[in-house]
Amino acid sequence: ARGRGPDASALDGIPRALPALQRADRLGEKAAQVGFDWRSAADVLEKIEEERAEVAGALASGEVERVEEEIGDLLFATASLARKSGVEPERALGRALERFERRFRHLESEARRASVELRQLDAAELERRWQAAKRHVDGPSTDR
Fold this sequence. Notes:
This protein is mainly alpha-helical. The protein has five helices and no strands. The chain has helices at residues 20-33, 41-61, 64-84, 89-113, 123-138. The radius of gyration is 20 Å and the shape is elongated.
């Protein structure tokens, strides 16, 4: 980016074709190289709380475009938290998805074994069964 003319940007060289989470990570890295960064992961947590509140406001407004924008900001802030914490956000999300899939498949298997349709269960019963699936798949110390 440096030395390539008056319009060069610190953000140059990041392919738009990257998956959005990877692109968010790279954009944050590039901005940080020129001093535009959070001081700490704790500072990013504050931003995430602010963005969460903005998502809530957007949801209350019912404006889908505003909801999308605010959720995008929340996701970007979350990617920044991962980066400031030394975590690769793409890997973190991938691992979370793997955990979810294992847990959900167990939940389905247990429901089939009990001849229960998940869609017929109320929220409280689904949560009880979800917690049981997490304990079964992850062990007793799971609190996520």
